[in-house]
Amino acid sequence: MADYKAPLRDIEFSLFELLDYEAHYERLGVGEDASPDIVRAILEESAKFCENVLAPLNQVGDQQGCTWNDGEVTTPEGFKEAYQQYVEAGWPSMSHAVEYGGQGLPESLGTVLSEMVGTANWSWGMYPGLSHGAMKTLALHGTDEQRAAYLSKLIEGSWTGTMCLTEPHCGTDLGMLRTKATPNDDGSYQITGTKIFISAGEHDLSDNIVHIVLARLPDAPEGTKGISLFIVPKFLPDADGEAGERNALACGSLEHKMGIHGNATCVMNFDGAKGFLIGPPNKGLNCMFTFMNTARLGTALQGLAHAEIGYQKSLEYTKDRVQGRALSGAKNPDGPADPVICHPDVRRMLLTQKAFAEGGRMLSYYIARLLDVEELSSDEEDKKEAADLLALLTPIAKAFLTETGFESANLGLQCFGGHGYIQEWGMEQNVRDSRISTLYEGTTGIQALDLLGRKVLMTQGELLKRFTKKIHLFCKEHADNEDMQAYIEPLSGLNKEWGELAMHVGMAAMENPEEVGAASVDFLMYSGYITLAYFWAQAALVAYNNKDSDDVIYRSKLKTARFYYQRILPRTRALVETAKSGAQNLLDLELDEF
């Protein structure tokens, strides 16, 4: 059974037919460097690397895991050689600034490459993936000297980066962190404290690891207003800009985890390590949100990745596995039984995975397009609109795509029956690996509070209106298109209800603030189903406009869109009921009644 096959045709559908990336790149002035031919050539080369180098290492990483010895970590067999190939081919520099050695291509193209890398081998992909957030943080908040010292090495891939937030006593509530930053006479700081759950915190792939660390200055205010951000490298840069003297930090141990065994999740001890302030004192959390939002969007891709690989493997298996006879008569009369793909319930599971994978791809690439606009556009109103839409869609993408990715991974395993539960096929690994995605970079509950509380209610619905207006205009434009009525009517109704539901919760919260927390996850999942419905309606429109084509993708899109609207979108009805049921049914029990 093939490990992974990059879905290049579907990627091109989302990029060029659904989202018109050719015109998008032209508007941003990068059309010549990112023409469809160039993009296709890059995608094809990336697909070869992911299929032939990374995918075969996925199960190796799971079974071998990382090993710790006296503070040093060794990655699984083949990981280091794969990383060397990755660097030599120039993949880390693809979407970064030319002045620091990057190739200057749009960030959205890097998103597509990250999807392929992550689907082939998520554990391996986390090593270079975390560097992206470190680079973005340095590019936006670092000094000229800091960018000169670190960016070129990170961009070329000879150094990698991490994000160090969580401590043993504090996770989401970063206001409780205790790591200290004591000023040195030379303008640097001594960083002392322990961080846990640090992905790629120690490994043997790169020459140096640049940690981006939250810590407190001696005179810092209490809470989140007293957090500063620091660069703390494993090796301090020497006079030539290379990795020099070893800094006073080490990996104390590796976490023993449910999944993603090929990535080192570390306890990091900073014992007076030399660090350098990024951004203003006590404003570290503001700067760190650059890294955190990058990581959240990266984690959304993880949900897509687990849905895609689960779908690919279970589709292939259900075509080959014979079991029972179709209720309408034998489909394989010369064989002892019919392929299980003939059975309606198996098709339900396959189509659910397909709808979430392909719908998640559309959403992810739409968000990537917004990132391009925010970074490259010269039109301030366009940049503002992109930033507003990103603020709304980031928690939806992170939480909804990871929840549906985990659901899809479980459905993929279920398609295999008992064979899915054993290691041989890789399906139980996909379930284990996907489980972390709903937890790190802010749990589903945290994302839901951010969406409903901060992004919707605290803006009086303005951010939500930015997006619902787009859906409204789409529905209005195609209201008279007979082919589209099966999509336009339900989408238009749900779009209106979306704002009404937010208002209902907001009014209830004026009487009892707990109503926001009680409704938030239901509201987020409801938002996710509508968001994907919007993209599936657009996909159906493209398919209808190409209905005379011989390309099977258009027929597939139409039928999958119909499935999504008839089988998946009705989940919103239950979510409205549970969101409106109020907080009291959650709060009635006294502690001794649990």
Provide the descriptors you would attach to this structure in a database record.
single chain, seven-stranded mixed sheet, 11 strands
Detailed description of the structure:
The protein has 594 residues and is of the alpha+beta class. The protein has a domain at 459-587. 57% of the residues lie in helices and 11% in strands. It contains 18 helices and eleven strands. The strands form three sheets. Strands 3, 4, 5, 6, 7, 10 and 11 form a seven-stranded mixed β-sheet that branches. A hairpin with a 5-residue loop joins strand 4 (180-183) and strand 5 (189-199). Helix 1 crosses helix 9, helix 9 packs antiparallel against helix 10 and helix 10 (380-415) crosses helix 11. The two termini are 48 Å apart.
